[in-house]
Automatic annotation (TrEMBL):
<dbReference type="InterPro" id="IPR000683">
    <property type="entry name" value="Gfo/Idh/MocA-like_OxRdtase_N"/>
</dbReference>
<feature type="domain" description="GFO/IDH/MocA-like oxidoreductase">
    <location>
        <begin position="144"/>
        <end position="264"/>
    </location>
</feature>
<dbReference type="InterPro" id="IPR052515">
    <property type="entry name" value="Gfo/Idh/MocA_Oxidoreductase"/>
</dbReference>
<feature type="domain" description="Gfo/Idh/MocA-like oxidoreductase N-terminal">
    <location>
        <begin position="10"/>
        <end position="121"/>
    </location>
</feature>
<dbReference type="InterPro" id="IPR036291">
    <property type="entry name" value="NAD(P)-bd_dom_sf"/>
</dbReference>
<dbReference type="Pfam" id="PF01408">
    <property type="entry name" value="GFO_IDH_MocA"/>
</dbReference>
<protein>
    <submittedName>
        <fullName>Gfo/Idh/MocA family oxidoreductase</fullName>
    </submittedName>
</protein>
<dbReference type="Pfam" id="PF22725">
    <property type="entry name" value="GFO_IDH_MocA_C3"/>
</dbReference>
<dbReference type="InterPro" id="IPR055170">
    <property type="entry name" value="GFO_IDH_MocA-like_dom"/>
</dbReference>
Amino acid sequence: MSSHVPAAPLRTAVVGTGSIARSSHLPALQKLAADGEVEVVAAVDVDAAAVRAFADEYGIPHASTDLDASLAEVRPDLVVLCTPPAVHREQSVAALRTGAHVWCEKPPCPSLADYDAVTEAEGAGEAGPYASIVFQHRFGSGARHVRALLGSGALGRPLVAHCQTTWYRDKAYYAVPWRGRWATEGGGPAMGHGIHQTDLLLDLMGPWSEVRGMAGRLVHDVETEDVSTALVRFEGGAVATLVNSVLSPDEVSRIRIDCELATVELTHLYGYRNADWRITPAPGVPEETVAAWRDFGADEPSSHLAQLRVLVDDIRSGRRHATSGAGGRRTLELITAVYKSAFTGATVSAGEVGPGDPYYTELHGRAPGWAPAAVREEEDQA
């Protein structure tokens, strides 16, 4: 296996032609194509009519229902996965084995075991080929600015944080067959909805050390949870609350970090601009210092485009992208730990969930009351 990435443009294949591909990935790819950075050369989907219509609409020369055949024929440099999480492992490994890089929609995989299998299929060294995750909230100008302030110690030590993804999803949303099921969606709001805010919190706060979680299935007739909460302790000593819900009519995404010298708060819904961030200084901080903190520079909203620009540059430069490998795994590991803690009642430490642990392979961990009926029947027969 070897990477065959040219200087430019990156030959790109889009796998999955549903709403996320149309609303987010194609606009980003088209913008970079206009700049000569990428060229969309193939589209793949299990629905023959859908992929043909997609390819015709966007002027994509190759349309197919067969991913393996497309990879062999087209030999893309970058494969963009816009498919449900249950197939991410298989599709990522297939692309990596042909030498293509992968940019995969969240959730990256239904389990840490699946994620590690993808990582094992990557190429050697920084240049890859490797798989990265769509975690676009890390890449807006607001996050870059606040990450720099926190990293430099300008705001003092982070002490207390709050991370909230409280959204609303009705019964029609869960009428889609693959939603609300462990095998196909991977998890409930902790996995499928709040993962972006959780990832951004970790990006800003650094490594976590332990978590205590709770989960409930309060409204929806699903296998997974529809609400969860957790307490998180970070290696630096800070503590945080984590709330994920699909039961909340007043929808909001929020991160708040209280540091020694200031409070930083981000309030938005599905994406932010600089104006969505607020910095409140502690008493006594000089006005000129506060003014510098509040100067976020040019406004680059969090978006697929913002991340894709960085990813393409990283691939060309032979660098590891921030959401690949360990940089993506840490978020999935924390979410896994939330489930394990919620279903066992125990505090879970970083690094605890590994091979041999039931939560390593399935986020429900075969826990009574949470494992699917088929798994429960299998347990009874054993």
